[in-house]
Amino acid sequence: MDNRRTDTVNKGEYEIDLRFFAVVFRKCWLFILLAAVIVGLVAGIYTSLFIPKKYSSTVKMYVDPNAQSSSSSFNNTTAEALAEIYPPVLRNSDEFARAVALAMAKLEKDGEAMFPRWTYTVENGVEVPAGWSRVRSMMSTGISDKLFYITISSEDPREAYEMAKIAAAVAPELLNETVQIGVAKVISQPVLDTVADSPSVPRNSVLAAAIAAVLVYLAFFLRDLFDTTVYAEEDLVRFELPILGTVPSFPSGDERADAKKTEKEEKA
Q1: Which of 13, 217, 232, 262 is deepest in the core (most CB within 10 A)?
Q2: In the chain, domain spans
Q3: pTM of the model
C-alpha cells in the first residue's frame, strides 16, 4: 500500500503525520535543490549588477558627564538618558539638515563644486540650501554601547565621508544649544569607506534560495495534500466511500517466465 498518507482516521477527519512530509520531500528534493541553486544564482547576479552599492561613514558621539552643564544634578545616569534623546532630536531637526546640506553645497575642489547636486540660493541675504530634506534619507542614527552615532550612506563613498565629517562638526553645537543639558562631544571621527556596506550579495542569494526551496516544497505539499486520487483503502475511508472489493495483483507473463527461469537456475 502507498504510504503517502497516514493511516489515522479520527471521526471522519483525515490527519497528516510526519511520514507525509517525508514522502513529499523524497519526491521533490531534486526540484528543491535545482530551484534553490538557480534562484540563488540569479539573485546574486542581479544584486551584483543592478542594485546600486552604498557606502557608509559613521561619527560617534557621547555626552560628557564631567563637562560644565546648566544642571547641577547632571551625572552619568543623566548623560546616558540624554544619549537616547539626542538621536531623534537630530533626525527631526530641520536646522541640522539645512546646515549639513548648505555645507555640502559649499564644498569645492579646484574651484568647482565638489558635489554638484548640492546647491543653494540666497534669498533676502539668507543662504537657503536646495534639497536639504535629502539629508534625512541618507542619515540614520542610533545608540551603541552608551554612545550615539550618525551614519551617512551614499552611492558615492566620498560624499558619505564628507557629509559625515560635516555632521560631526554641526551636531554637537546644535545639540548643546537645543537641549541645553549636558555637552555632546565627538569620540570617533568618520573614515572613508572603501568597501560597500550594501547590498550583500551572499545574504540576498541565500535568502532567495531559501524562499525558492520553501515555495517548491509547498507547491508539492499542497498538490499531494489535495490530491483526490485513490491509492489505497485508507483513501476510500477518507472520502467515505464503500469498499466493494479489491483486485489482486497477478504477475505478468514475463514476470512468471523470469521467476521460473530463476527457480530452475537455483535448482541446478
Answers
A1: 217
A2: 9-49+200-267, 55-188
A3: 0.69
